[in-house]
Specification:
The chain is built from ten helices and eight strands. The chain has helices spanning 30-33, 60-74, 87-98, 119-132, 136-145, 153-162, 165-177, 199-209, 227-230, 232-244; strands spanning 5-8, 15-19, 40-44, 80-85, 103-109, 189-194, 215-220, 253-254. Helix 8 links the parallel strand 6 and strand 7. The radius of gyration is 17 Å and the shape is globular.
């Protein structure tokens, strides 16, 4: 199995694995790969998506299993610190649950855990948007609206045009079915969420952090789902501190732990 992968840093250094969200691909991490000196970095396209589309259909379990083999083959010492955004964060959580020996620590950004209210309507709405944006002009507008960096907008358009509805529907089914695990292996886990992402994602961050004794949850005040597109320096400073075991930037607001009934 060959995943299209962006790679940076020096081989032999500790590896950081970056997992992208559903509407984008590995290019979203390009600036971050260069912002972690002293680390070996890997950013693959997830199986079934973008330039790894031939490895579909996408499933969370299948992606986690494929990444475990990928880590064993490509990562220093067969282990990684994993960073995942949105769908990639759900994959990272699945990887930690299924293959804990491959993960030293996990950072989960903007992950949605169900149940998702009005899920059938969400799927129908996504189909309508997908069907309505089958033109380069509309996709270019969508790229600007989503905050896609100018250098990657053409790639966003081409990848969006190449994505089929069955492939996207598979992603939606998996994403909507994802639930925060009741328990995860005891590794340092960082859950980050934009404060403007909405109550569901804020609750999700707290639930994911609460699934392991090593979990912490923080919000980025005044920012939405793609907050790191406009605050890349905050993401990079956060990751550098997190990887070094140092205090996180003061810009982040701690979230209280999720309530879990006794027994």
């Amino acid at each position: 199995m060959t995943l299209f992968t962006l790679e940076g840093g020096a081989a032999g250094q500790p590896t950081v694995l970056f997992l992208h969200g559903a509407a984008v691909s590995s290019w979203m991490w390009a600036p971050t790969l260069a912002a972690l000196p002293g680390r070996h970095t890997l950013a693959p396209d997830l199986p079934g998506l973008a330039r790894s589309a031939h490895l579909g259909p996408f499933t969370l379990a299948g992606a986690a299993d494929a990444l475990a083999a990928f880590i064993q083959a490509r990562a220093t010492g067969g282990q990684v610190d994993v960073v995942g955004h949105s769908l990639g964060g759900a994959v990272a959580a699945e990887l930690l649950a299924r293959h804990p020996q491959r993960v030293r620590r996990a950072a989960l950004l903007g992950v949605t855990t169900g149940p998702v209210p009005r899920a059938p309507g969400f799927v129908a709405g996504t189909w309508a948007v997908w069907h309505a944006t089958r033109s380069r002009r509309l996709l270019a507008w969508q790229a600007r609206a989503l905050g896609v960096p100018a250098a990657h907008r053409a790639q966003f358009v081409e990848e969006s045009l190449a994505q089929t509805w069955p492939a996207l529907a598979a992603v939606l089914r998996e994403a909507l079915a994802f639930r925060a695990p009741a328990a995860l292996p005891p590794v340092p886990l960082l859950a980050l969420v934009g404060a403007r992402e909405g109550a569901l994602n804020v609750r999700s961050a707290r639930a994911l952090a609460g699934a392991t004794p090593g979990g912490q949850a923080f919000a980025v005040p005044g920012r939405g789902h793609a907050w790191f597109a406009t605050r890349p320096e905050l993401l990079h400073a956060t990751l550098r501190a997190w990887l070094a075991g140092q205090p996180l930037p003061d810009d982040l607001r701690p979230l209280p732990p999720a309530f879990r009934p006794a027994g």
